[in-house]
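User: Structure please.
Assistant: Input sequence and predicted structure:
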Amino acid sequence: MRETYCSSFGVQLEVDAVVAAIITFMKEDPKRTYKIIIGTDSQGMADKTADFVNAIVVHRVGRGGRYFWRRMDDKSKYHTLRDRIIHEVMISLEAAHILLAELKKQETVDLIPQWEFEIHADVGANGPTNALIQEVVGMIRANNFEVKTKPESYAASSVADRHT
């Protein structure tokens, strides 16, 4: 089964349709600069499982944006915060590779406005995730992606968090 994302309007879309929607959004105002961002957040449950939500955000810098999200059905046990955060990052990395492959396919067909790509991690200097920042940033940079952490990681800490 292929992964599907919900639009902010509640429409179910496969990754190729998400990319088409992103391109359509960017073409509406092609002179702007865009950021395409991946972020994942989770909510730990009492039985040690977790609810993971992955978000794709296309940000028209200075002029709003659109987002798409999906919830992962995962029955694994996460005994530590570190395990859960590392799994969030792995979900984001996997989604990033899939999304970029689809974007590259479309770039050969369409002329897409200028865009940058980021992964937002739900870790920050304040709070219990402080000890994980170096590890998480290192994982993402090792995959050649730009990374943002709290308070700049709105795709994870605001958009994805909204749906956990």
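The domain at 4-162 is CATH 3.30.420 (Nucleotidyltransferase; domain 5).
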